[in-house]
Structure formats: C-alpha cells, structure tokens
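Re: weekly structure request thread

Next one in the queue (167 aa):
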Amino acid sequence: MNRTAKFEEAVEAWGKSVEQGLSRWIQRDRSLNFLRTTRARVVLWAFTYTWMFSGFVVVVMRRPQWSGYWFAGLLVFYIIHRISIRDLFQMPEPLLDELQIKRRNKSYRRAYRNFGGWVILLIAGYAYASTYDSVHTSRMVSAWILIPALWVLAPYLAAGFKGERED
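Done, posted below.
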C-alpha cells in the first residue's frame, strides 16, 4: 500500500469519526435547548421572515451596499434554525426515528409548495418596481440572494412551531 492510499484511509476514518461525533453531539446536546422550545421557534420564525423580507426591501430600494450584512444575517438565521431542530434535514435516515422522518418529509412538501408562491410574489414585486421606478441592475442582484435563501431556509421555516418540551 502506498503512502497516498494510507493517507486517504486516514482522512476517511477521521472524517467518519468527526461525522459520528457531530451527530451524537447534536442528538444529545442540552446547552442549546433554549432554541428548541415552541416559544423560541415562533420568535425565530418571526425574526427570520422580518430580516429576510424587510432586509430585501431595504437593500433593493435604499441601500444596496448593505447586501453583505443582509446576507450575513441570513446565514446566522440558517445556522440557528439548523440548531433549533437538531439538524433534522441533514441527518442520515438511520439516525432518525419515525416521527422525525414524518416531520421532515411534511416540512419538505410544505416548504417547496410555498417556495413557488414566494418566487411568483418576488417576480410580481420586481415587475411592479420596474414600472414604478427604474430599479438598477446592481440592486436586483439582491434578488439572486433572496431566491437561494428562500430555497435553503424553506424547510426550516415550514418545520412548524412545535418545539421540544422544556425539562
């Protein structure tokens, strides 16, 4: 066995151990339980929608130079959502129980049904804005941030408000 094959095996073993450790930590973690309650899910949902759409309007209509801050905020909300539902959408099937699988599949159906409506609303808003006032192309780049943000955040926003019980 040559050195490259040994190195690849070592990296593969390390990657597998890191993935297993992360999965165990997410399943058993208690330090972030305050993000997993129903109250926290409702507040997180409201803040995410407020940041996503009001930030989009501000960036497109008034301050295109703030698009980096808006994108960073979307990334922070994405990470918090992943923590709040214990990484449900990234976990492999064998690590989930039947209730989690059912909740995940229902969230996917609801999310991507809603996604079409959001895109139609975005296109209608762009059409209205372009007839009302000439919107510069540089500002509409933000729309290309919003569409992937909606796609990525859609399952988390559709996962529902029901959180875990407080112990």
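The chain has a mean pLDDT of 76. The first helix runs from residue 3 to 28.
Next request, please.
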